[in-house]
Specification:
The complex is a heterodimer of chains A (about 475) and B (about 200). By secondary structure, chain A is of the alpha/beta class. Helices cover about 55% and strands about 10% of the residues of chain A. An 8-stranded mixed beta sheet of chain A has the order 3-2-1-4-7-6-8-5, sandwiched between helices. The longest helix of chain A is centred in the C-terminal third of the chain and has 31 residues. Chain A starts with a helix and ends in an 8-residue tail after the last helix. With about 200 residues, chain B is mainly alpha-helical. Chain B is built from 7 helices and 3 strands; from the N terminus they run H-H-H-E-E-E-H-H-H-H. Chain B has a 3-stranded antiparallel beta sheet with strand order 1-2-3. In chain B, strand 1 and strand 2 form a beta hairpin. In chain B, helix 1 runs antiparallel to helix 2, helix 3 packs across helix 6 and helix 5 packs antiparallel against helix 6. Chain B is globular and about 70 Å long. The chains are: A alpha/beta (about 475), B mainly alpha (about 200). At the A-B interface, helix 1, helix 2, helix 11, helix 12 and helix 13 of A face helix 1, helix 2, helix 5 and helix 7 of B.
Chain lengths: ~475, ~200
């Protein structure tokens, strides 16, 4: 039976098995890389002082951020970086809530640096960031999202990366997802639905291994192709020599990273694991769907805008994008079809027990891959994150299901990019189906009552009077 | 299964695909469309002349290529998909390879046809053109896979059959098919997206 299962998996499950195998090989490569460079990630406590700390300008685009912006600003005021060298600019882009009132209150709070805010008459993150860039004067320009909370050493570690290597043009911080039981508005504990709890922990593990392992590896191999939209920083001279944040794609941060990589090939883009920013987990599956569709759509749009990066997709070195396009896009299509075709193999003569055993085996292999990722993440984790991973070891059971779910969400992005305009509002397919069924129901009812039934009645000489 | 039931299922499938298409619910449209079509092709292929024809075609392709490189093989009209391969190492003699569902390429062809014919964003003409190219390339990739098995069998003997069939042949076939997908789906998609973004920027 084992041989049969193995044969089945190798033969028919290959389209599901290979992406998993690639994940496994990548996990091993990351594991080795992460082990060799664990000192870059772990705080050693002997970091050198920055001799001449530059002025850091922090731009925060804020749209209807009244409930969250205070926590963000508070975290900046708690930075260990010299406060006199921090300039904050909040760009309120057409908020309809009381964001401006909150900002006025925040401005009056004691802070060693400068805090300003402006209001724009239009929406859009890219526009807000670009407007902010022209109004700040720091040598390092950092952007963070309004619902993000910085670790106390985040700015210091970010600046250190620029200070240690003059070739570094841009730096991304590491994003950590907070537990679901923390209320984004109050920062206090709250009751959480088990599904939300599991989703938040899955996101935490995904981000944690993504930033602490994946992007570190890409950073070391000079193949990093995206910065975190929630927390990243640039040298002013580099940023002003770009088109800045361009709205032509839905992923302005990846677009900018690509522009830097193409315009300044001798400069570096780095990921700094010790510069940590905390974000709240995605609240609902609908929100998660919208987020992943946007990410995937953005990846494809940016790749399309820079054809020079996809000329050698099978080359080992170079930006990680062509390779991830092969995994994310090229292999996704057969994976979609085979996911459904594999169970149907029963109908073409394979024993049901074989099909079920093969499917279970594949889930187990996925669990092993996720276990490996969790192991590496645990090795590189410190403090609360370490105990959080340890306490949630059982998440290894759910991680393949989470990745499988987000795979479908991301796949939705590949289809949306082909058919829908950029301004398209992402709506999950279940809601869309419900709306569609209602439309069909209304149309059928209208046809029956206004066309079919009156004609039928007329045939029998019955007159229907309506009020 | 009764024919009326089969036709009813196909009609229900087509209506559901149309519903998702008209309501622009692309994820469900694509899954249902591509998986459904792949399954219909497999179902029809298995119960008609299609599968034996494909088996025979693959066997003939391997036979022609083998004769070009000097490996004596035989195919038989009465047994579609059967190839006799002369083994020259170890136990010299003939080995019969049978092109079954696992190596006819029917399933892979059905999958790629489903994937391409329901891919949104391209004209139907382009999708049909790409599907034809993909089917021809998948057939060739499958012949290459079987050629590897024939070559290994001929040179390394019957003991090599398992590894060349299950691992080497399959791996080569997989890589070739990934390349087909890259050049027929991912790269043209990037071109389409670029044109779309350029158009949006111009407007």
């Amino acid at each position: 039976m084992t041989d049969q299962v193995l044969g089945f998996v190798l033969f028919w499950g290959v389209w599901l098995f290979v992406p998993m195998l690639i994940d496994g090989v990548t996990a091993v490569a990351y594991f080795i890389g992460a082990y060799r460079s664990r000192h870059d990630v772990l705080s050693t406590g002997k970091s050198a002082r920055i001799k001449d700390p530059p002025l850091v300008s922090i731009i925060i685009p804020a749209h209807n951020a009244a409930g969250v912006i205070s926590h963000c600003l508070e975290s900046i005021r708690r930075q260990t970086y010299d406060q006199e060298k921090i300039e904050i600019l909040v760009v309120d882009n057409k908020s309809a809530d009381h964001t401006r009132r909150v900002l006025s209150t925040e401005q009056s709070k004691p802070f060693g640096g400068v805090m300003n805010w402006i209001t724009l008459p239009y929406r859009g993150k890219s526009g807000a960031l670009n407007a902010g860039i022209h109004r700040v004067s720091g040598d390092i320009i950092c952007n963070i999202d309004a619902d993000t909370v910085l670790d106390k050493d985040a700015i210091l570690e970010m600046v250190r990366a620029f200070d240690e290597d003059p070739k570094v043009a841009a730096v991304t911080g590491a994003i950590e997802v907070l537990p679901a039981y923390i209320d984004p508005a109050t920062g206090k504990k709250r009751k959480t639905h088990p599904l939300k709890y599991v989703m938040a922990e899955a996101e935490f593990l995904e981000y944690y291994s993504g930033f602490r392992i994946g992007r570190q590896y890409q950073s070391r191999t000079s193949s990093l192709f995206t910065l975190a939209g929630a927390f990243s920083a640039f040298r002013r001279d580099v940023l002003l020599n770009t088109f800045m944040y361009d709205e032509r794609t839905v992923s302005e941060d990846t677009d900018l990273t690509f522009f830097i990589a193409s315009r300044f090939p001798d400069r570096k883009v780095r990921a700094v694991a010790r510069a940590v920013a905390y974000v709240h987990p995605t609240e609902t599956l609908k929100a998660l769907y919208a987020q992943r569709v946007r990410w995937q759509r953005g990846q494809l749009e940016v790749a399309a805008m820079y054809p020079e990066f996809e000329r050698h997709p099978f080359r080992i070195r170079g930006l990680a994008l062509p390779k991830s396009l092969i995994i994310d896009h090229t292999l996704a299509f057969p994976r979609v079809v085979w996911t459904f075709l594999l169970p149907m193999m029963y109908f073409i003569g394979y024993p049901l027990s074989l099909v079920v055993s093969a499917s279970l085996s594949m889930y187990l292999i996925y669990m092993a891959v996720d276990g490996l990722y969790m192991g590496v993440a645990y090795m590189l984790a410190e403090g609360e994150a370490k105990s959080r991973i340890r306490q949630h070891w059982w998440m290894v059971l759910f991680m393949p299901a989470f990745r499988w779910t987000t795979f479908w969400f991301r796949f939705g992005g590949f289809l949306a990019v082909m058919m829908e305009p950029k301004e398209w509002r992402v709506r999950d397919p279940v809601t869309e189906t419900r709306v569609g069924v209602r439309k069909v129901g209304v149309a059928t009812l209208t046809f029956l009552t206004q066309s079919f039934l009156p004609r039928l009645a007329a045939l029998f000489g019955i007159v229907i009077r309506t009020r | 299964m009764a024919p009326w039931l089969i036709w009813s299922l196909i009609a229900a499938w087509a209506l559901a695909v149309l519903f998702f298409r008209l309501n622009r619910i692309w994820l469900f449209y694509y899954i249902l469309g591509s998986v459904g079509l792949a399954f219909i092709i497999i179902f029809v292929g298995r119960s008609t002349f299609l599968e034996p024809a494909l088996q025979s075609g693959v066997a003939s392709g391997v036979h022609v290529l083998s004769s070009v490189i000097g490996i004596p093989t035989e195919v038989f009209r009465a047994a579609p998909g059967a190839i006799l391969v002369l083994v020259i190492s170890q136990d010299i003699g003939w080995t019969m390879l049978q092109v079954t569902i696992e190596s006819s390429g029917l399933l892979e062809s059905a999958v790629i046809a489903g994937m391409l014919l329901f891919y949104p964003g391209w004209t139907i003409g382009r999708r049909i053109q790409f599907t034809i190219i993909a089917l021809v390339l998948t057939y060739l990739a499958n012949v290459v896979r079987l050629m590897i098995i024939v070559l290994t069998l001929h040179e390394a003997g019957k003991d090599s059959l398992l590894i060349s069939h299950t691992i080497v042949g399959r791996a080569v076939f997989f890589l070739l098919v990934v390349a087909i997908y890259w050049y027929l789906m991912t790269r043209p998609t990037l071109r389409t997206v670029k044109r779309k973004l350029d158009r949006e920027m111009m407007s």
